[in-house]
Amino acid sequence: MGKPKPRTGECAGCNGWGWLAQPPYCSPCHQWRSKRHNPAAVCRRCGRDWRVNIDGFCRSCVLAIIDHDAAWYYDPVASAKLQVVTQLALIVPGVTLKAVPFGAYRQRSDGRYHPPAWARAQRPDPVRDDPRICPPTLAGQLALFPAPYRMRHDHAAAIVDRPEDEVPEFRRAMEVLNSHTAGHANSARSRSLALRVLRLALAARRAGAARSTAA
User: Fold this and answer.
1) In this structure, what DSSP letter does residue 185 have?
2) pTM of this prediction?
């Protein structure tokens, strides 16, 4: 029996419909099943008995997770209780969807560990601009009682996304900071921390400017 000729049909691997270069599989699924580190097992997401990767997912589920279902990456235990809906995929010659490894949390320039870029794109970080931290006061407003306060690093992190037009003189102060750090061997983490503290100081200055003017 000779090698099956390419044809159009349903792939036995990803269940996509289109051109099957290696019947009954499309070319990517044929390569997927040929890898020794993809053993035959039940997929954790769809429950199919096929070839799975080191994370326990078949190729079609890896593509779905990377494309739109990052919940299986962040919280696979909770996601396992939900019903999986698999859409029909079309196999187009010349267009190959790569089922790449998920990737682990990696340390970035700010010193923190972040999930892969594809996972962050599905769950972008919320805008960090807490209105309770140094809210701008109205011109002429006078505080009834002086309230002691202490600025902390978590306060600086809470307003890191505050628009620059709401923090006067931030760009000018940033230029001074850049000229200062240019001649020093400062790490990216220390510079990021300095920018946060600078933004907080200017925000605190604006919050108290109206009171000092009124006084």
Assistant:
1) -
2) 0.61
